[in-house]
Amino acid sequence: MIALYEGKSCETAKQFVAYLESKPKLEINYAVFGAGNHDWVNTYQKIPIYIDQMIENAGGTRIIERGIGDSAGDFYGAFEAWKENLFRILRKDTNNQNVISEEKLSIEIVNTKRNLGQITDFGIVLQNKILIEANEIGPTVRHVEIKLPKRQTYRTGDYLAVLPTNPIEIVYRVLKRFHLSVSAFDILSGYVELAQPISRKQVETLATLCKNEKEQINIRNLSGDVYENEILTKRISILDVLELYRSCELSFPQYLRMLPSLRI
């Protein structure tokens, strides 16, 4: 998994890139999946392509063609499709069924507070107003003023960590859909991404779990040519599809496995 930052390798990958540039002799099998955003035209997939080529030049054997993940598109769908092809190569007995195995959850409350890593102080948002609405050219542009905690400083170029939480109304929709008690509120509000657009692979999975034939056909059609306009552009989530097609029998453990983690 390779990402880049402003056209360069990330801090965590600098030593690895330097090692490859030293032209070592490698006798390994490898696979590369690159992450990026196509809006950055001049640097899109630059580092993944570079690393892929260097490993091959050093004697590595490419198991599968380099995967391409675009954060401005169906990133998770692209990764799932690439990963599925990789596993098919690694395990000759892997079939191509869109099935999620049922798993029973075992819950143990060890700490009711979310682990925030290095975040110990919080700023206060004093002002948050829209300057430019989202349009075909780009996303929404906002003016945000933040009061820093005591003993905290900020210089131009510094970063602020945004701690994400899901909107309360979406959390309650999930609790209602899966008949859960409010004890599941914390995990749904602060640990998993509920509003992430459903991927093509996930659409196919829901279709296989749908008991109504007409609804099954309608769901499966969403993974076709209409996917970008009807799913990505409108940011239709797994929950949106489940609420629209009631005959889809997706269990809560299966649902949790399909959700990506909230990213700080």
UniProtKB/TrEMBL annotation:
Any one cellular-component term (Gene Ontology): cytosol
Protein source organism: Rotaria sordida
Record-given protein name: Flavodoxin-like domain-containing protein
Keyword flag Kinase: no
Domain Flavodoxin-like residue range list: 1-87
PROSITE patterns documented for this protein: FLAVODOXIN_LIKE
Example GO molecular function: flavin adenine dinucleotide binding
PANTHER family, per database record: BIFUNCTIONAL CYTOCHROME P450_NADPH--P450 REDUCTASE (PTHR19384:SF127), NITRIC OXIDE SYNTHASE-RELATED (PTHR19384)
Pfam families xref list: Flavodoxin_1
SUPFAM superfamilies per the UniProt record, alphabetical: Flavoproteins, Riboflavin synthase domain-like
InterPro entries the record matches: Flavdoxin-like, Flavodoxin/NO_synth, Flavoprotein-like_sf, NADPH_Cyt_P450_Rdtase_alpha, Riboflavin_synthase-like_b-brl
Keywords, ordered alphabetically: Flavoprotein
